[in-house]
Write a structure and sequence with these properties.
about 80 residues; 2 helices
Length: about 80
C-alpha cells in the first residue's frame, strides 16, 4: 500500500502526463514509425482511481468513505 504522500506524488505525475497529452504530446515518430505514449482513457481511469484512494485514505483529513450502492440485473 502506498502512503498518502506517495499517492499524491503519483497523482501529480498522472496529471502532468494528462496535460502533456492534451497539449498535443501524445505521439511521436522515429524512423517513420509512429508511437503513442499512453492510452488516454486508461490514464483518466487511473487518475479517477487514485483520487478515490486518496479521498478514502485514513491519513487524509476528512477521509471518510461515503456510501454507494450498485444495482445488478435490472431495475431497482
Amino acid at each position: 500500500m502506498f502512503t498518502l504522500a506517495e499517492m499524491k506524488d503519483r497523482l501529480a505525475l498522472y496529471r502532468e502526463a494528462e496535460r502533456a497529452i492534451l497539449q498535443g504530446h501524445q505521439s511521436y515518430s522515429v524512423d517513420n514509425k509512429q508511437f503513442n505514449r499512453v492510452n488516454f482513457a486508461q490514464l483518466q481511469e487511473a487518475i479517477k482511481l487514485l483520487e478515490a484512494r486518496i479521498a478514502a485514505h485514513p491519513d487524509n483529513a476528512g477521509g471518510r468513505l461515503s456510501h454507494s450502492f450498485a444495482v445488478f440485473g435490472g431495475r431497482r
